[in-house]
């Protein structure tokens, strides 16, 4: 039997093999990670756990493994970002508006991973309604706390883990879970993966079902996975993705795909585009040095670096912060205290009930984005702001397609800096700018990922972003895997 003290150092692939060979049981693995979550609850990563529910799932997987009927991920523990609804755990999106909500069904991606054999450890903190880039805007108290807390970066507990999937990134980096789900609207998987030194991937828009995902911006939201390595992400993504056209109108009608199939292929001759706009003003010197070092590793493996231009990169932030708040304003309108969400106890009439309920239950960042979104959709401003932003969004997508004529993948930093101290960014725009490099792929619906690429100042992680054309996740993961075969950046762990 495997010594369980080493379980949290295993990746998904290794742990799945140990479980299949009965060297460790699913119940043992589940208990180990639940204990890890309790031991390190000061990080604030988990919003809810239910040990009985987790162990019941684990026992069921052990029974299937004993019969030789286990799925590809049989018994592997996973934790879910709290924007994916679950029957056995509360789902709040870290929002007081949804405090205590229990869904009557599981999100499609939760169900898909369960069908593959994954065992749910619990739900993970995020920025309220996934609106934020630091996980400082969580409105629900994490396990072990009496009041809402920011999630803390396992590499330095005084710093942010990134957002909005900060709880997912922190949990994986700290070994509280071998893998986690995340959602990525403008970089919410890739940026925290960079800041926490793990691997995370957002697939092509439409690859993963949005059914059961609490919506932020529907034309941008996409589910993905976060783990230690590209191999682990490939295994998870193969089970997570698949068509769901009857329940999600944006789901792509493509059969499930084995994203591990190209992992053994080298990168010799691969053309990697390097956008000059990603290496200009705003990129911190320590991050630049780490990214350039990672690109040199690709060259050593036989890839060819190709200078490219994405001339509208500087417009990605304003475009995103017109379109996403507009969609958020529409999506969150249903949360009015009548049928959904928190209802104020004291109010004079119907309008006052709406006002009081939403004032009490929405956080400041959510209110800010609702107000921006309502403004840009209002009469007299729709054409000037929202319609114009959609036009520029198309131009940004066209820039990326033009670049792919000269390269196979695009590479650059996932974030302009390493993790910053909690509370140090008081101007919201400073946090918005941390997504400058991830936004173009989101606006274009392209698959993108962040892989560890060394360290910057204070020994903090730096992530290399890789972007591929639509439905080229297998190529993306293969390139990342080859880099990880040649380097050890993804194997480094924070000292908790």
Automatic annotation (TrEMBL):
<dbReference type="InterPro" id="IPR023631">
    <property type="entry name" value="Amidase_dom"/>
</dbReference>
<keyword id="KW-0436">Ligase</keyword>
<dbReference type="InterPro" id="IPR036928">
    <property type="entry name" value="AS_sf"/>
</dbReference>
<feature type="active site" description="Charge relay system">
    <location>
        <position position="81"/>
    </location>
</feature>
<dbReference type="InterPro" id="IPR004412">
    <property type="entry name" value="GatA"/>
</dbReference>
<comment type="similarity">
    <text>Belongs to the amidase family. GatA subfamily.</text>
</comment>
<keyword id="KW-0648">Protein biosynthesis</keyword>
<feature type="domain" description="Amidase">
    <location>
        <begin position="29"/>
        <end position="477"/>
    </location>
</feature>
<protein>
    <recommendedName>
        <fullName>Glutamyl-tRNA(Gln) amidotransferase subunit A</fullName>
        <ecNumber>6.3.5.7</ecNumber>
    </recommendedName>
</protein>
<feature type="active site" description="Acyl-ester intermediate">
    <location>
        <position position="188"/>
    </location>
</feature>
<dbReference type="InterPro" id="IPR000120">
    <property type="entry name" value="Amidase"/>
</dbReference>
<comment type="function">
    <text>Allows the formation of correctly charged Gln-tRNA(Gln) through the transamidation of misacylated Glu-tRNA(Gln) in organisms which lack glutaminyl-tRNA synthetase. The reaction takes place in the presence of glutamine and ATP through an activated gamma-phospho-Glu-tRNA(Gln).</text>
</comment>
<keyword id="KW-0067">ATP-binding</keyword>
<keyword id="KW-0547">Nucleotide-binding</keyword>
<comment type="subunit">
    <text>Heterotrimer of A, B and C subunits.</text>
</comment>
<dbReference type="Pfam" id="PF01425">
    <property type="entry name" value="Amidase"/>
</dbReference>
<dbReference type="InterPro" id="IPR020556">
    <property type="entry name" value="Amidase_CS"/>
</dbReference>
<feature type="active site" description="Charge relay system">
    <location>
        <position position="164"/>
    </location>
</feature>
């Amino acid at each position: 039997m495997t010594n369980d003290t080493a379980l949290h150092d295993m990746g998904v692939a290794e742990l799945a093999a140990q479980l299949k060979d009965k060297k460790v049981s699913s119940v043992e693995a589940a208990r180990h990670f639940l204990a890890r979550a309790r031991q390190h609850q000061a990080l604030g990563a988990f919003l809810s756990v239910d040990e009985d529910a987790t162990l019941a799932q684990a026992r069921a997987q052990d029974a299937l493994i004993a019969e030789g009927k286990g799925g590809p991920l049989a018994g592997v523990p996973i934790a879910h970002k709290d924007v994916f609804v679950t029957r056995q755990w509360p789902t709040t999106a870290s929002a007081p508006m949804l405090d205590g909500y229990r869904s009557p069904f599981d999100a499609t991606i939760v169900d898909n991973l369960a069908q593959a054999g994954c065992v749910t450890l619990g739900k993970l903190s995020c920025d309220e309604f996934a609106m934020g880039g630091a996980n400082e805007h969580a409105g629900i108290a994490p396990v072990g706390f009496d009041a809402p807390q920011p999630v803390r970066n396992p590499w330095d507990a005084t710093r942010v883990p990134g957002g909005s999937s900060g709880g997912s990134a922190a949990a994986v980096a700290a070994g509280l879970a071998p893998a986690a789900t995340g959602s990525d609207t403008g970089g919410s998987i890739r940026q925290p993966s960079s800041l926490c030194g793990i691997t995370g991937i957002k697939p092509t828009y439409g690859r993963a079902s949005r059914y059961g995902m609490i919506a932020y911006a529907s034309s941008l939201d996409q589910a993905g996975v976060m783990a230690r390595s590209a191999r682990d992400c490939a295994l998870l993504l193969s089970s997570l993705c698949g068509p769901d056209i009857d329940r999600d109108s944006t789901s792509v009608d493509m059969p499930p795909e084995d994203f591990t199939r190209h992992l053994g292929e080298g990168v010799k001759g691969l053309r990697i585009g390097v956008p000059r706009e990603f290496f200009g003003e705003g990129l911190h010197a320590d991050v630049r040095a780490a990214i350039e070092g990672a690109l040199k590793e690709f060259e050593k493996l036989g890839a060819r670096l190709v200078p490219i231009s994405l001339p509208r990169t500087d417009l990605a932030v304003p475009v995103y912060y017109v379109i996403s708040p507009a969609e958020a304003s529409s999506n969150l309108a249903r949360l009015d205290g009548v049928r959904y969400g928190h209802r104020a106890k004291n109010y004079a009439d119907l309008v006052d009930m709406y006002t009081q309920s939403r004032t009490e239950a929405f956080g400041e960042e959510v209110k800010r984005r609702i107000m921006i979104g309502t403004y840009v959709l209002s009469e007299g401003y729709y054409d000037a702001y929202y319609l114009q932003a959609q036009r520029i969004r198309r131009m940004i997508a066209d820039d990326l397609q033009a670049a792919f004529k000269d390269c196979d993948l695009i590479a650059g930093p996932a974030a302009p800096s390493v993790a910053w101290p909690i509370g140090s960014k008081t101007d919201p725009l400073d946090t918005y700018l941390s997504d400058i490099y991830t936004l173009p792929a989101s606006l274009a619906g392209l698959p993108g990922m962040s892989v560890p690429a060394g360290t910057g100042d204070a020994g903090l992680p730096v992530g290399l972003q890789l972007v591929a054309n639509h439905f080229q996740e297998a190529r993306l993961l293969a390139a990342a895997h080859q880099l990880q075969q040649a380097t050890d950046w993804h194997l480094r762990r924070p000292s908790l």
